[in-house]
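I'm curious: can you give me some protein's one-letter sequence along with its backbone structure tokens because I've never seen that pairing?
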Amino acid sequence: MNYLKIAWRNVLSNYRRSLVTVLAIGIGLAAVNLFSGYIANVYAGLKEQAVKGERLGHLTIYKQGMLTAGKLHPRKYMFTAAESARLTSIIRSDPRVRLVTPRVSVSGILSNGSASTIFVGEGLVPEDLQALRGDLVAEAGGKLDRTRRTGIAVSSDLAKIMNIGINDGVALLSPTLSGQANAMDADIVDVFNTGNAGTNDKFVVVPFAFAQGLLDTDSVERYIVLLDRIDNTERVRADLEQRLGAAGFAVEIKTWEELSSFYRQVKNLFDMIFTFIFSIVFVVVVMSVINTMGMTVIERTREIGTLRALGLQRRGTALLFAVEGGLIAALGSALGVLVTLVVSTAVNHAGITYTPPNSSSAVSLLVDVDVSRGAFVLAVIVVMATVAALWPASRAARKGIVEALGHV
């Protein structure tokens, strides 16, 4: 028996009911796919912002204990100059490593001569900063000039608060690692937006040598490692832990995802919202198919009795309706994919922007094509719609042949 051909004829014979079910499945699937594509675009943007905008790289290497006891006694948990030379040599020998750059944190008071405010920031190598920034837009992440040893970059809200701009002079006051007060003059070479409302009014980026001078040290707090591919992060971390441990280094290696709390929080929130939306669509699809197939079975009870009288087994009867339910789900899924592509293309070309929570700059509303998640959702809907059609069909198939033929 050609189940597919018969199922297609049955779908067309009840085209109004089938159309409503197809529309319910298609619109529901499109809604899930569009939201999935939106969060996929958000995740990609947050990854780039964490690796490049937050300057986390893919891996960050600390001396063991720096993240705990090192908060109170940083000097004891920093890499000395001799240790730094050996450590960077080992890391750079890995062909997957594109960049190894030192980093040190600084904080204190910034003054423009007439007013003062607190600042937090990082000291990093100007040449490495450009390599780490990659193709970020010009105003993101902050820029340094390698020819200006005292040139610093300040966040845009901090510049507004202090009424300072490019080429203005400021003074930075910070405690050294031994607890003494130290001050250094600096010139502003860039004003940038951190992308985070919580840091955009206090963050500065300074040359690494400048930061070491401010802290009165030649040690390194941590090393940032940039890889050839983000997919290699976990593998390279495991390899470096083994190699550095064998060389006598007690280190802690953190990935960009572990250090970017904002990325984790946003991802967990969106994953929960996606699960909630998918659950609603899933229930709507299953109930629509059950309702459609239930009505169809009731209307075709005598037909079922006739088929059974002609020798069709109960299993074959249930299979016939299951194929019909699967065909309706497939048509709805095809419609959903088409609506997804049309709407996502329209949204991507509409130029819509919005400002996310805790952000200080607007971003574009874009929808990516999330193939893996979309394929999973499509497969689940088709399979469950097919299974849902079995329930009313199996009930009808269990009726006796005489009872089914006499159904009115």
User: Anything to note?
Assistant: Residues 55-259 form one domain. The mean pLDDT is 85.
